[in-house]
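Minutes, project check-in
Item: structure for the 315-residue chain
Input as provided by the requester:
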Amino acid sequence: MLNKRESLDLPHTLMAVDSLARLHAVSLAFSRNHNVHFLKKYPAFNTASCIDPFYIASVAIIYDGVIRAAEQKGNQYKHLLAIMASNKEAVLQKFSEALKNTNESSKVTCLAHGDFWTNNLMFRNSENNGKEVQQPQDVMLIDWGITFWRNPLLDLQYFIHCSTTRNLRKDHLGEILHRYHSTFTVTTNDLGSPVDNWQFEDFMAEWRRTQVFGSLIGMMNTLVTMSESGKNFNKSDDLQTTGVRAHIDYWMARIMAPIMFFMFSLPPFAFVMRRAMEKSFEDMVEELCSWKNDTLQFRVFDLIEEAFENGLLES
């Protein structure tokens, strides 16, 4: 497994994209070829909307934190401050809309991993004279805990913005997107389930519509991954992986997590969730605003500058 604090190079990125495209294509073909309504047969994968309030609340907090951090640098980020502050509600609304599968351009839904990025990929690299070299031969996906039936572009946006650098995206994004679309198309065709009205132009329209999701979720992921305080975000001192306790914890999580996410999606609980999320991110946001972690600041502001250049911060 690669270091989650490091970004992928192009060969590893392309292999991961191939794997992701095949996952999406095979699940779609299975649903069609077996003549089943996937979510009726497997209702456990119909809970994507339950986790969306968590995403929306989290990125709103991070967005405010980025504005605060930019304010600390005076005129350096003046161009960002004006547009971020004035268009905040519009940007967050576009983020919320990107999570939905109701847009006319969302022609494809399938089984999405939900947390597809460097930390959940295990690569097998080539060897030369018994020593490993950084040339990938195979990849395995792990951590399927939030797999849903939804728009596959959200997986792709999440991966691209959480696992690659701005320079790699600048130089190779077109190649990466063509690779995904080609692998997806070839796989669905080979499985007898070609997707109508999903030419590369249609695919790119959906990429642009959901790109705000990638940018903002990338900032959230970077904050947790690159901050020193974020190292303890999901850490537990009482981690159980085997035995009776592990089975109890597993089933409690399967039962309680959807209930909790559903409750927090209701208006009366929204304020409670917001306060809880603010507390969770408090130390990480303060670290961002302190400008003492060069890697954190560089990665976060690379994403926001890129979003600005792509017009994603406009209303």
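Outcome recorded: The longest strand covers residues 131-141.
No further action items on this chain.
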